[in-house]
Amino acid sequence: MNGKAGNFNLNSSSIDTIVQCPFCKSENSKVLESRSADDDRSVRRRRECIDCMQRYTTYERVELAPIVVIKKSGSREVFSRDKLIASIIRSCSKAHISTATIDNIVDKVESIMHQRFSREVSSITLGELVMEELKLIDPMAYLRYASIFKKINSISEFIDEMKNLEEQILYTDVRAPILLKSA
Ligand SMILES: [Zn+2]
């Protein structure tokens, strides 16, 4: 996926990573060139050993501790960005939401999870975080996602959800779009 913003400062001269030269094991190297790699998630650095003058390349990547999702059944699984993207794409298939927007939603949800929840998050909370974002972007996609997520089975439940949404939209002073003509 494109559009992922990186947090690396490529021009930073203070590199606190200790790198061992693969040739002489020296820990003194100078960086000749830095470039973002892997879609901005890692930094490729071309280095030269100050002691033996050999050149080599390192890839530095920030790894965040994986988040574990606790499902309704009580079972746990490692949070999968791809899985979340797939579930949003399914609910947004009829809505005009770009993959870049979906990517941004997932970025935001992922960073909220890392900020608010140290290691574990329930699948319910995860779904609610997605719905909060969808609600702001596309009420139609939100309703579709909510209907799957909340397992809305009856028309009356669906209408309740639409009313809630309409009230919230009015409350936040956003012009209410025309909601579902056909459910
Ligand atoms: Zn060396």
Summarize the topology.
Layout: E1 29-37, E2 42-49, E3 55-61, E4 68-70, E5 76-78, H1 81-91, H2 99-116, E6 120-122, H3 123-137, H4 139-149, H5 155-171
Parallel strand pairs: 4-6
Antiparallel strand pairs: 1-2, 2-3, 4-5
The structure holds zinc ion.
Which terms would index this structure?
single chain, 183 residues, alpha+beta, 2 domains, three-stranded antiparallel sheet, three-stranded mixed sheet, 5 helices, 18% strand, elongated, disordered N terminus, binds zinc ion
Give an overview of the whole structure.
With 183 residues, the chain is α+β, with helices and mostly antiparallel strands. The chain has two domains: 16-63, no CATH class; 68-171. The chain is built from five helices and six strands. The strands form two sheets. The chain has a three-stranded antiparallel β-sheet, with no helix packed on it. Strand 4 and strand 5 form a beta hairpin. Helix 1 crosses helix 2 (99-116), helix 1 crosses helix 4 (139-149) and helix 3 (123-137) packs antiparallel against helix 4 (139-149). The longest helix has 18 residues, at 99-116. It is elongated and about 75 Å long. The two termini are 31 Å apart. Residues 1-15 and 173-183 have low confidence and may be disordered. Bound molecules: zinc ion. Zinc ion binds at residues 21, 23-24, 26, 49, 51-52, 54. The site of zinc ion has 8 residues, from loops.
